[in-house]
């Protein structure tokens, strides 16, 4: 490890990485790939906002790397100083060259964290009697997943369930597009048989989105315990869930387009659910 002690103009750095060939720099680059994230049970979080959301959600961070040359505000320096004083995890300064090699982003803001991946199961969920759940099947693009999670958080979804999903939840693009809100929600990966039994035991209604129905998305009672199912843009939901559905809904389209992007469609349905549920308050 190539650590040096050095004093910067505004920050006292106890640990500093100068070389682009440092082992920790190499590991940060490795963690961009799913296989290395899974082997280490770690994930990368880049950006002040995203790391802040992760900490607020209670995610366990092991290392925080920074380069003040890329800081875009005084908030970044304050953030580093606070966490160096707290001493809960290693805070490590980097040279511009080492940081740029480590960063996954264009235009980084000077902060990268390594955190331990969370693992949730359905049995861990603590829900009220009428939860609003979002179930995603076959979502393929990390950017879509991140955007969907932002909408889910904003609409007050109680939990997000990924069913038979091969998408990597901790893909850096998913974390970035969610603005770190990926960590704010309980997210569970499971299979369809386990989910079917759990939903039935909880008396949660299944509502699926499909173009093969005339019922618009606002003609559903979202105030009951309900799981909203969203499928991929290319294939939609599988026949298994279409046959299990209590409600089938579609978003009416007035123009030439026959559908919305999956993230936009999810937001439309979730905010209708939020509108109805707000009346209960």
Short précis:
The protein has 2 domains: 101 residues, 60s Ribosomal Protein L30, Chain: A; 156 residues, Alpha/beta knot, CATH 3.40.1280. It is 35% helix and 20% strand. With 281 residues, the chain is an alpha/beta fold.
Radius of gyration: 21 Å
Using the coordinates shown, work out and report the CATH topology of the largest domain: Alpha/beta knot
- Counting helices, strands and paired strands, the structural category is alpha/beta
**How many beta-strand runs?**
13
Number of structural domains: 2
According to CATH, the homologous superfamily of the largest domain is: SPOUT methyltransferase, trefoil knot domain
Beta percentage is: 15-25%
Q: Could you name the CATH class of the largest domain?
A: Alpha Beta
Placed side by side, the strands forming the largest sheet appear as: 10-9-8-12-11-13
Query: What's the shape?
Result: elongated
Write the layout of secondary structure elements.
Blueprint: E1 6-7, E2 12-13, E3 16-17, H1 23-30, H2 34-40, E4 42-46, H3 48-56, E5 61-66, H4 74-86, E6 90-94, H5 96-102, E7 111-116, E8 132-137, H6 142-155, E9 159-163, H7 172-177, E10 187-190, H8 192-202, E11 205-209, E12 226-230, H9 239-244, E13 247-249, H10 262-278
Parallel strand pairs: 3-6, 5-6, 8-9, 8-12, 9-10, 11-12, 11-13
Antiparallel strand pairs: 1-2, 4-7, 5-7
Helix pairs in contact: 1-5, 6-10
3D structure, described in words:
There is one protein chain. The protein is an alpha/beta fold. It folds into two domains: 16-116, 2-Layer Sandwich (60s Ribosomal Protein L30, Chain: A); 122-277, Alpha/beta knot, CATH 3.40.1280. 35% of the residues lie in helices and 20% in strands. It contains ten helices and 13 strands. It has helices spanning 23-30, 34-40, 48-56, 74-86, 96-102, 142-155, 172-177, 192-202, 239-244, 262-278; strands at 6-7, 12-13, 16-17, 42-46, 61-66, 90-94, 111-116, 132-137, 159-163, 187-190, 205-209, 226-230, 247-249. The strands form three sheets. The chain has a six-stranded parallel sheet, sandwiched between helices. Helix 1 runs parallel beside helix 5 and helix 6 (142-155) packs parallel to helix 10 (262-278). The longest helix has 17 residues, at 262-278. The termini are far apart. The model is unreliable at 1-13 (pLDDT under 50).
């Amino acid at each position: 490890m190539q650590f040096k002690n050095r004093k910067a103009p505004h920050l006292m750095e106890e640990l500093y990485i100068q070389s682009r060939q440092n082992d920790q720099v190499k590991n940060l680059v490795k963690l961009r790939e799913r296989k290395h994230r899974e082997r280490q049970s770690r994930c990368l979080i880049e950006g002040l906002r995203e790391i802040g959301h992760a900490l607020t959600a209670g995610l366990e961070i092991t290392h925080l790397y920074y380069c003040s040359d890329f800081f875009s505000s005084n908030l970044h320096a304050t953030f580093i100083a606070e966490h160096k004083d707290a001493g809960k995890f290693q805070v490590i300064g980097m040279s511009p060259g080492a940081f740029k090699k480590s960063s996954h982003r264009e235009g980084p803001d000077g902060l990268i964290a390594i955190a331990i991946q969370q693992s949730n199961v359905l049995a861990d969920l603590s829900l009220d009697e009428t939860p609003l759940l979002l179930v995603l099947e076959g979502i393929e693009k990390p950017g879509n997943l991140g955007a969907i999670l932002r909408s889910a958080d904003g609409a007050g979804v109680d939990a997000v369930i990924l069913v038979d999903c091969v998408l990597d939840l901790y893909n850096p693009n998913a974390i970035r597009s969610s603005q770190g809100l990926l960590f704010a929600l309980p997210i569970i990966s499971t299979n369809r048989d386990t989910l079917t039994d759990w939903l039935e035991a909880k008396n949660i209604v299944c509502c699926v989105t499909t173009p093969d129905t005339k019922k618009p998305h606002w003609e559903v009672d979202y105030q009951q315990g309900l799981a909203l199912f969203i499928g991929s843009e290319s294939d939609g939901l599988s026949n298994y869930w279409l046959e299990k559905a209590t409600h089938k809904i579609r978003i009416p389209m007035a123009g030439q387009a026959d559908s919305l992007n999956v993230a936009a469609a999810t937001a439309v349905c979730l905010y209708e659910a939020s509108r109805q549920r707000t009346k209960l308050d």
